[in-house]
Predict the structure.
Amino acid sequence: MNNGFPWKRAVLALLVAVVLAAGCSKKQTVRTEGGPGSAPGDSAASAPPPGGEMKEAPITEGQVPPAGRAAKAAEAGVAVTEEKPSRFPDVLFDFDKADLTEAGKKICQGVAESVRRTPKAKVLIEGHCDERGTAEYNLALGERRATAVRNYLVSLGVPKEALGTVSFGKERPLDPGHTEEAWAKNRRAHFVLK
Amino acid sequence: MRRPKGFAAALALLVGFLLASPAFPILYIDINASGGKRMPIAAANFIVASGDPSLTRSVPQILESDLVLTDLFDIVPQSSHMEAVTLAHFAGTPLSFPAWKVIGAEAVVIGRVDVRGDQVSLEMRLYDATQGTLMAGKRYSGTHRQIPSMVHRFANEIVHAFTGVRGIFGTEIAFSARPERGKGKEIYMVGMDGQNLRKVTDNRSFNLFPRWSPDGQWLAYTSYRTGVPLIYLRNVATGAEREVIRFGNTKSTGGFSPDGQWLYAAVSQEGDSDIYRVRLTGGDAQKVVGGWGLDVSPVPAPDGRRIVFVSDRGGSPQVYVKTLGEPEERRISQGSGYATSPSWSPAGNRIAYTARIEGKFAIFTVAPDGSDLRQVTGATDADCEDPSFSPDGRYLVYTYRKRGYSDLKIISSDGRRERTLATGLSDMGSAAWSPR
């Protein structure tokens, strides 16, 4: 203080510099990044780069979900959304069941006889469900229905190789209604002759 | 000794800065306290240094809509703002915080936009109006159409600054629905703010059960595009796809393991559906749940050690929890009805599922040991199904169906607040909320 060096001014300058530096480096932001709620493995966009001014967070095409990018041009779909007509009636089932009723067995007997008369025939058995319940569960239930029909046809002497199964779950109702009557029609196995 | 006026001011600023620099964020808002106090926040008009002047309000409006969705903030309307933000405020000049406090704002967001051709630079700062301190600041750059993404990211910073938990803005919900014309089903996506609804698949067959990889880069889904249900893995950004799980007959997508290494699925063989997991690099498959009964809808827990799934082994579909490698499979849904579609909360402490009550489906949550059952949706004339937790666990997205009419809705996990996210498509289902 007594050697003529302007201490007061130097301290003030230093303080101002510290404050400015602190203000520029935005240390608060850095601190919040490391808090207990911060997401591990967060993308580089929010990771603080060392030093520098306000964090540069480059947003590139790769890091951002593609907004509005249309799916690839219509992929080759197969017409699975339209029911192929059958010369056999559908086998119907009770709610959440895959057991064959007497009426269902009669229909299967007709199918078995017809397949036996045309040795090269192949039959796809589609399992269907009504709209109630989860799509995943109904998909498995439809497969169980189709398999129950296939197993009965095999027991009647139809070669297993002539039979295929697929489930459509509740995706392709025969009757689009929302009544007990519509549901009863939609719990079924449908035969497609190939 | 004559003290320069600026000295005290600088010292006060320095002290204020040091006090406001905690090692951990101060938790201003407890997000678990339902119906708690909301934080009044003001988003000033942004400075448009170059570019379309209308950005001055349209950009902060995106931020305001995000913050409103959280139920954590009240927006102090722009019409009441007293201080005009200038470029100087981005160059060291402090805001007049009393002018924000007096209109009720406890936090202020300022921003500046620089547009050069299609390139946009967007700087946003969050200030605590009481302490006059910077709580968060970021500068983003990208293309013009990425402005909403930049704002969503900063909104997440704001939520984090106040709660210690990152926000969920910019996340998306994938689901299946029937297109306006046609009988098939396609996979769709919509932003969690209800914006940017779009088709992901377009193959006019049945496309079902979308599930997100933990890094959000991939969607696994089930498609009939070859005539039978097969499971595909699709890169969300590029649309590139490959088939996974090449055995069995009818199959449906389950969830990814938390490390992203395995995809779970239900696979039917000989009419019996069992649960498998397939390693996505290499392709080896393991049976996880077998035996008699339809076993479907597997979802791994966030700890990767347990799975929740649906089985009808007891006579009707019910929800079960199993620790991998252990024989016990414990039923956690109650009653004799019909319980399906489980979703694990991100913290692993709750499981949401759909169960039928008085002829209609409603959403419930339960602890993984089957205790503490709570009903979330209360509609008595509609079916509420397919719940999926938000990445912060505060919300559930679900499908609301009433006679063929369907909505995608979001409800707070305590069931108190609800909003419609998407409407107008029929038969929406299998909602899946993306990770952050």
